[in-house]
Amino acid sequence: MPLLRDVFIKLSENQVLNDATKKMGLRFGANKVVGGITVDDTIERIKDLNSQGMSVSFDNLGEFVTRRSDAIHEKDIILNMINAIGENGVDASASIKLSQIGLNIDYDFCIENITEIMDAAKKHNMFVNIDMENYASYEDTVRVIDHLMERYDNIGTVLQSYLFDAKNDVYKYKDRRIRLVKGAYKEAPAVALQEKEDIDKAFELLIRLHLTKGDGFTSIATHDHNIIEKSIDFIKENDIPNDRFEFQMLFGFRKELQKELVERGYNVCIYIPFGNDWYAYFMRRLAERPQNLNLIVKSVTKDPMFQTGVKAVGALALGAVALKFFNRK
Ligand SMILES: Cc1cc2nc3c(=O)[nH]c(=O)nc-3n(C[C@H](O)[C@H](O)[C@H](O)COP(=O)(O)OP(=O)(O)OC[C@H]3O[C@@H](n4cnc5c(N)ncnc54)[C@H](O)[C@@H]3O)c2cc1C
User: Are 105 and 72 in contact (CB under 8 A)?
Assistant: First the structure.
C-alpha cells in the first residue's frame, strides 16, 4: 500500500497538524501506542509493564529541534523522567534522540545537554541508549557516542541493518550494549540497502555477529516473528545465556508476542514513547504498517461523539422514511 504510506508520511510532516495536536490529549487511538502525555501518566504505564515481567526504555517524543530554548526544555523533561523513575524504583532505561537536545544546533551545546542527562542517569544507575536517526546525522551521532563511551559505562546505541557500514560498527561495538534494528528512515541507495529481503538478511547476520563476537549485550529490536524465531534457534544452538540479550518492541505492538516471549523465559524490553509531540510518531507507525489503521477505526467508533452522530443520522433517516410513508397515505 505505497500510496497510503505516502499519505501518512505527508500527514506526519504537516506542521499545522503537529502544532494543533500538541494541545490535545492523546486522540484517534494514539493512547494505544503512546505511553502518556505527562511523566506521571507514563510512570503508571511503566509500572504496569514491569508487573507483566517487562522492562522499559522511555522516549520523550519530538525530534529535529532547531531552537536552543526548545532543546533545553526537552532536556529538562528527560531529566524529570529520569528522576521520577529513580524515585518510583521502576525498571526503566532512557532512549535519547540527540536531534532533540541540540545536535542540529551546535555540537558542544548537545554535549552539554547529554552530559547532564548521563550524570543524572548514572546517579540512578540507569542505562542510556542513544537512538540512531537519519543518515545525515550519523557521523555527528557517532562522534557524540564515542565521546560518551570514553567517560561512561551506562551508554549504548543503535545499529541500523540497512546501512552498508553497520557490519563494521558491530565489530566496533562488540563489547557494548547495542540495539539492533532494521532501520526506519528512507535512505539513499548509495548508503543503504533498499530491498526488504536484503535488509532482513543483513539484520540476521548482525544479530548473530553481535551475539557471538564480543562480551556485549544484544537488544534485538523487531516485531518480525520470523527473525525472532531464527534468533532463538541460533541462541539455543550456541548456548548463549539469557542475560546476554533481550527482545525489544514498541509499546502497543504485538502485545501477544511480547507476553509469549516473557512466558518462554526471555527478557523483553518495551520502548515507550511519551509526551505531547505524539502526532508525527503516530502517523509514522501508520505509514509503516497501514493495518494499524484499525487502532483509529476502533477508537473513533467507540467515541461517544461518533456514536451520538450515528444515532442522530439514524433518527433523521428513520424520520425521512416515516414522512415519505405518511405523505403517501
Ligand atoms: C524498540 C525499537 C527501537 C527502535 N529504534 C530505532 C532507532 O533508533 N533507529 C531506527 O532507525 N529505527 C528504530 N526502530 C525501528 C526499526 O528500524 C524498524 O523500522 C521497525 O521496527 C519495523 O521493522 P520490524 O523489524 O519491526 O519489522 P517489519 O519489517 O516492519 O515487519 C516484518 C514482519 O513482521 C510482522 N509484523 C510487524 N509488525 C507487526 C504488527 N504490528 N502486528 C503483526 N505483525 C507484525 C509482519 O509479518 C511483517 O511483515 C526501532 C524499533 C524498535 C522495535
Answer: no
Total of domains in the chain: 1
Q: Ligand 1, residues 32, 142, 182, 286: which to mutate, most atoms within 8 A of Cβ?
A: 182
The 3-state secondary structure of 178-240, one letter per residue: EEEECCCCCCCCCCECCCHHHHHHHHHHHHHHHHHCCCCEEEEECCCHHHHHHHHHHHHHCCC
What is the CATH classification number for the domain harbouring 19?
3.20.20.220
Whether residue 70 lies inside any domain: the answer is: yes
Dist. CA 289–CA 258, nearest whole Å? 18
Q: What is the pTM of this model?
A: 0.90
Supply the residue whose CA is at minimum distance from atom 3 of ligand 1. 221
250-308 pLDDT, tens digit each: 999 999 999 999 999 999 999 999 998 888 888 888 887 767 776 666 655 555 544 44
Report yes or no: 178 and 219 within 8 Å, Cβ to Cβ: yes
Cα of 122 vs centre of ligand 1, distance in Å, is 29
When the pLDDT of each residue in the chain is averaged and rounded to a whole number, the result is: 89
Assigned domain for 295 exists = no
Residue 300: inside a domain, yes or no? no
Q: Is the pLDDT of residue 228 over 80?
A: yes
Residue 160 lies in a domain: yes
